[in-house]
Amino acid sequence: MTDEVTARDPQAIGAALRWALARDLAIAVRTRGELGVELLFFVLVASLFPLTLAPDPALLRTLAPGVLWVAALLASLLALPRLFAADFASGTLAAIALSPRPLAALVSGKMAAHWLTTGLPVVVLAPLIALAYRAEAADIAVLVAGLALGTPILSMLGAIGAALTLGARGGGGLLALLVLPLYVPVLIFGAGAVGAVQAGLGGAPHLALLAAGLLAAAVGAPLATSAAVRIALE
Amino acid sequence: MTLRPRASAASRAREHAPPPPLPASVTLAAQDLAARRGTRLLWQGVNLTLSAGDALVVRGANGVGKTTLLRVLAGLAHAEHGSVRWRGAIVAPHAQALRDDVLFIGHAPALRDELTAAENLTSLAALAAEPMTAGACSDALAAVDLAAQASLPARVLSEGQRRRVPLARLASTSRPLWILDEPAAALDAAGVRWLGARLAGHLAQGGVAVVSTHAPIDVPGARVAEMTL
Asked: Which residues of B touch A (CB under 8 A)?
C-alpha cells in the first residue's frame, strides 16, 4: 500500500483514471436499463411525498431538501453493489490489483464513473422535481450546488463500503448498514444549506463544509478503497 | 517439497547462450513458504529458485493449494510464513516491482459479460500497461482460435472460449514473469501446442514461468522443473 502515495509519474495516474473511467462508462452504456431503473427510483421516491402530504405549499417547500437528499442518497446506494461486485466475481478485480498502474487511481476512475452515471443525473433532475415541491429559485440553486458537491462524496464513501463488503454474505444489506451512517454528515449539510437559505441565512457555510468534505474524501477514499480491495482479494 | 532446478544445467546455459534481452537478474525465489486455509496448513517448507529461462510446473490434486501458491508468488495473497524474492529483493504482496513484471492468468477469466471478446482483451492489455492495436488484438484472438468470436459479447461465449480470451495475451506480452493457473484446462490439443510454443519462446528470451496444470504441456527445449504439492 505504501507505493500508492508515491506513485511515480502523473502519466501512470492519468492512464489509470482514463482506463477505469472509459471501461466503466462503456459497461454502463451497455447496461443502461439498470441506470434507468435507478433514476426512475429517484424520481418516484421523490414524487411520492407530495402525493401523500397535505397540499400545503409551505410544508412542501420545507420538506423538499430533506426528501430530495434522501432520494439521491438511496439512488446512489442502489448502484453501489455493482461498483466492484461484478469485477470481483469475474476475476477482473485481481487483474486490476495486479496492474502496474496505481490501484488508488484505478478505483478513483471507477468512483468517477459511478458518480457520472448515478450522481450527475440526480443533480440534473433535482431542479425539475423540486418544482413539484413549490421550491423557489434561490432554494433550487442552493439545492443543486449542494448536490453537485455532495453526491461525489456519496460515491466515494460508498466505494469504500462496496469494497469492504466484497465477498460478504448479505452484501447489499450490510453495505447499506455500513455506508448510511457515513452519509449522515453529507445529508445534514446538503439539506441544511437549503434550510439556511429558506431561513434567510445564506447557504455558503454549509456549501463550504461540503466542499471541504469533498476534498477530504477525494484524498482519503481512493486509498481506503484500494486497501479494502486488496483485503478482499486475499 | 524442496525444489531447485539443476544448477549445473542453468550455469551451462548461461556460459554458452547469448545474453538474454531481459535483465539477467530475472529471478524468482521463495524461502520456506507456507500457506494456511482456515486452521489447516495447506503446505509448508516450499523453497524454489527460478532464474531466467526456468519454468516450474506445479502439480497436485484439486484442493492441495496450487492456486494459493500461484497467488502468493504473484503477490496477490500473503503467505503464512516465508518470503518471496523477485530480482533478488524481497517483495511484499502488491509490491510495485512485482506488478511491473508479472503476468498472472488465474482460474477466473477476468471478462466482463457486457464487453466483446476483443474489447475484453484490449481492456486487459491496456490495464497491464501493454496496450494492443486492433491488429495485434485480432492476431492474438486468432492464435487462441477465437477469430470468429472477436466481436461477440463475452456473455455468449462458452466456458472454454471465455478462458481462452485472457490466454490470448500470451501472444504479445513482454512481461518477464508468467504465472498461469491451469492454462491448458480450456484448450484443445492444438491450443496446448500453441501454449507450449509460447512458453518455449518466453523462456528462450530469458523469462520465468510458473504454471499449474493437470494436463501435460510440451515445452520444447526448456528447462522445466516439477513440483508436486
From this structure: 74-78, 93-96, 99-100, 102, 104, 106-115, 119, 123-124, 126-129
Total domains, chain A: 1
Q: Which residues of A touch B129 (CB under 8 A)?
A: 12, 15, 99-101
The angle subtended at Cα A101 by Cα A121 and Cα B128, nearest 5°, is: 100
Phi and psi torsions of B44, nearest 5°: -150, 165
pLDDT tens-digit series, residues A107-143: 999 999 999 999 999 999 999 999 888 888 999 999 9
**Mean pLDDT for the stretch of residues A60-75:** 91
Alpha helices, DSSP H, located in chain A: 10-30, 32-52, 57-90, 92-97, 103-114, 120-132, 137-164, 171-198, 204-233
The pLDDT of residue A201 is above 80: yes
Say if residues B77 and A233 touch (Cβ distance below 8 Å): yes
Which chain A residues have a beta carbon less than 8 Å from that of B111?
90, 92
CB within 8 Å: B99 and A100: yes
Per-residue pLDDT at B198 exceeds 90:
yes
With an 8 Å Cβ cutoff, are B78 and A92 in contact? Answer: no
Q: How many CB pairs under 8 A join A and B?
A: 79
Residue A57 φ/ψ, nearest 5 degrees: -55, -40
The domain containing residue A154 runs over which residues? 2-233
CA angle B179, B78, B223 (to 5 degrees): 30
Answer whether residue B204 shows pLDDT above 80: yes
Q: Which of A228, A104, A116 is nearest to A165 (CA)?
A: A228
